[in-house]
Amino acid sequence: MDLLNTLVDKGLRRELPTRDEALAVLATSDDELLDVVAAAGKVRRHWFGRRVKLNYLVNLKSGLCPEDCSYCSQRLGADTGILKYTWLKPDEASKAAAAGLAGGAKRVCLVASGRGPTDRDVDRVSDTIKTIKEENEGVEVCACLGLLSDGQAERLRGAGADAYNHNLNTSEATYGDITKTHTYADRVDTVQKAHAAGLSACSGLISGMGETDKDLVDVVFALRQLDADSVPVNFLIPFEGTPLAKEWNLTPQRCLRILAMVRFVCPDIEVRIAGGRELHLRTLQPLALHLANSIFLGDYLTSEGQAGKADLEMIADAGFEVETTDQVTLPEHRRGGGCGSVCGSEESANSACGSKEAEVPAAEAEVPEARTDLVAVRRRGAGTDLAPNA
Ligand code: SF4
């Protein structure tokens, strides 16, 4: 396929595909799927070899959020049956983090529900970051606390945070359909604040919320333009009790196409398979390792993932290796605060963003089965007396 040869060439040169090309990846047929995976896999191996970075989530504060994000099990008034608890103490968070690190994770992601942290919350999280860093040499710590106010990113950086996560989630055009209590611009602002403070910016998307292919391409192009170092790709977990509970839109094949598109648009950026991996990729999870170079180990914030041991076995069986703390995730040209001229290039970014909308045929309609049997609310690890899954 000329399309795939072109995309591989561009990926190896870190050149932005056109929007038409990105849309065409999403519109490929199931017959072409393995060719798509093989092509994006070449780009993945060129920049990241066969390494898989493992990240471990610690939910510092669960539920009780005043915001109304329609995809989220922690949203205001959601009747989802999730664990609800307030801030973990630094030693509790550090204990949870240690389990993930012992399981092979190199990054710990400290997440708290809420619109954004107060200054007191930043103090608490700073203490937690310091405790985790003191007790675990070489660990990377990412904070994910919502919208940041002026000066908070700098304080987190000063406490030792390496990265800050705040997802754009979907396109600017549809953001208002999924959340009313804050805006797309608010989210962009926080990613920019993190970046400006010298934190590695982690920002991603959620697919499967009923968005169009154009929305997906828009958000991925926006993430590249924001110069995120890592891009988590979530597949919606349609929690009962949320407005999106009936949105079962994803097939394993669709998930692979989405990951391939993200890899072509973000060739040298950490592409992370995030929530919904087990639920939507199911037995095709190992193929996704040819596209993404990073996954979460064990459980998610409010739902359970497959056993951490199963994650490790899958990586080994698929011929990949867990990235160690002495291996640097990003290619050399992206280290040390941004990628310089390529991703930030006005020319490359604007020319693609300004290209005409593709007139590619829509992918054949698929009606996936609702797999509610695979959604398990987290009942172990942080905030419980039970051992974490790592
Ligand atoms: S995504 Fe974050 S801000 Fe939105 S409802 Fe969930 S916890 Fe609250």
Annotation keywords:
single chain, 390 residues, alpha/beta, TIM Barrel, 10-stranded parallel β-sheet, 10 strands, binds iron/sulfur cluster
Structure overview:
The chain has 390 residues and is of the alpha/beta class. The protein has one domain: Aldolase class I (TIM Barrel, Alpha-Beta Barrel), CATH 3.20.20.70. It contains 14 helices and 10 strands. α1 runs parallel beside α3 (33-48), α2 (19-26) packs antiparallel against α10 (252-265) and α5 packs parallel to α6 (152-159). The longest helix has 17 residues, at 119-135. The protein is globular, with a radius of gyration of 19 Å. The N and C termini lie far apart (41 Å). Mean pLDDT is 90; it is low at 337-363. Bound molecules: iron/sulfur cluster (SF4). The site of iron/sulfur cluster has 9 residues, from loops. [4Fe-4S] cluster binds at residues 65, 69, 72. Its EC number is 2.8.1.6. InterPro entries: Aldolase_TIM (IPR013785), BATS_dom (IPR010722), Biotin_synth/BioAB (IPR002684), Elp3/MiaA/NifB-like_rSAM (IPR006638), rSAM (IPR007197), rSAM_sf (IPR058240). Belongs to the radical SAM superfamily. Biotin synthase family.
Question: Per CATH, what is the topology?
Answer: TIM Barrel
How many separate domains? 1
What oligomeric arrangement do these chains adopt? Answer: single chain
Label the CATH architecture: Alpha-Beta Barrel
- Secondary-structure element series: HHHEHEHEHEHHEEHEHEHHEHEH
Number of helices: 14
Question: What share of the residues lie within helices?
Answer: 25-40%
Low-confidence stretches: 337-363
* CATH homology-level superfamily: Aldolase class I
Q: Alpha-carbon distance between the termini?
A: 41 Å
| Main beta sheet | 10 strands, parallel
Instruction: Choose one word for the global shape.
Output: globular
Bound molecules: iron/sulfur cluster
Question: How many beta-strand elements?
Answer: 10
CATH class: Alpha Beta
Structural class: alpha/beta
Beta content: 5-15%
Supply Rg. Answer: 19 Å
Mean pLDDT: 90
InterPro entries: Aldolase_TIM, BATS_dom, Biotin_synth/BioAB, Elp3/MiaA/NifB-like_rSAM, rSAM, rSAM_sf
Binding site for [4Fe-4S] cluster: 65, 69, 72
Family: Belongs to the radical SAM superfamily. Biotin synthase family.
Cofactor: [2Fe-2S] cluster; [4Fe-4S] cluster
